[in-house]
Amino acid sequence: MYQAYLAARKGKRYREEVLRFSANLEENLIEIQNELIFHTYEVGKYREFFVYEPKQRMIMALPFKDRVVQWAIYRVLNPLFEKQYYDHSYACRVGRGTHSAANKLQEWLRIVNKKPGKWYYLKMDISKYFYRVDHEILINIIENKTKDEELLSLLRLLINSESTEFGLPVASSLTDTNVREGDKGMPIGNLTSQLFANIYLNELDKFVKNELKARYYIRYMDDFVLLSNDKQELNQWKEEIISFLDEKLSLQTNNKTCIRPIALGIEFVGFRIWFTHKKLRKSTVRRMKTHLKYLQKQYGRNEIDVPRVHQAVMSYKGMLDQTDAHLLKNKLSQDGVFRRND
Asked: Residue of 43, 90, 101, 307 with fewest CB within 10 Å of its CB?
């Protein structure tokens, strides 16, 4: 529980609720432990708000106590599933991320560019993924991996969440609270949601690799790309993937699905990628500038600490280092000054 606490407070130790929890740390950790042992733990109340970059999303944040519980779950459950994940799934995994995903896709483009024939890519992503995950299907997938009833009981409590409904129909607006569904969806903002999201779509990974036998397939959360020198084959794969998602995972793809020549470049994980080079998408640059300004305000108000700032800045530096954007790097270096308010 203490290790879970340390992970949960990382980059947030000066927030008011974290300071309050830390002031009586031993007592609070023992309380959590007892609630889990005696099955009296109840999930706290979600705080809802919206973010609008890169697109509108509904964020649902739990109190700090519940985030400690989630880290405790994550530290136990993630190693069990990490062993069986597909090698080229890159989201929310230690040592992976957007840079690794972009580099691997570019590596494949360089390989296929030397092969005969004209090569194409199939790009797909899932409509309202986090809001459409089916609770029963998710629980069944986890039950196939572990029979630990203590853990499963806690996971059912988190996933089904009787006090808050997460699901939204595909055609609905995120602000339409009257149509929420209680048997679907995961709250964006939960650590366990990232874990569950990878567990859920690992079923797709197994289908694409084991059934379709696709050699070049890469996924970052619900955004995935397949390569082939046979356009008809990609069309066939597209139809089979759509059927699998609908029948086995109760998911639908959105209207961004396309099949195009690789010579046009592939938009993936914030880049447009060719076998020769990569460019940052304009929306990525805009989002980067907006987020840095937001971090500057947070830092000025003493809401985040230096490690959190350093983590974000180094992440963006790593992204820029993947491109030839020298002017943009200089601009962000000049503007990216962090000062505490008096």
From this structure: 307
The tens digit of pLDDT for each residue in 264-299 reads 999 999 899 999 998 887 777 777 778 788 888 888
- What is the token pair recorded at 49? 């708000």
Give the strands of the sheet with 216-220, arranged side by side. Answer: 216-220, 223-228, 120-125, 258-261
Residues 246, 247, 251: CA angle, nearest 5 degrees: 25
Query: How big is the chain, counted in residues?
Result: 342
How far apart CA 193 and CA 186 sit, in angstroms, is 6
Q: Can you list the alpha helix ranges (DSSP code H) found in the chain?
A: 2-9, 16-23, 25-37, 64-82, 98-113, 129-132, 135-143, 149-160, 191-206, 231-249, 282-300, 306-321, 326-335
The residues near 327 (Cβ < 8 Å, ≥ 6 apart) are: none
DSSP one-letter code for 59: E
Q: Is residue 272 a contact partner of residue 279, using CB atoms and an 8 Å limit?
A: yes
pLDDT in tens, 88-120: 999 999 999 999 999 999 999 999 999 999 999
CA dihedral of residues 242, 244, 248, 250 (deg, nearest 10): 0
How much is the pTM?
0.83
State how beta strands 120-125 and 223-228 pair: antiparallel
**What is the rounded distance in angstroms from the CA atom of residue 326 to the CA atom of residue 308?**
25
* Residues contacting residue 154 through CB under 8 Å, at least 6 positions apart: 36, 41, 73
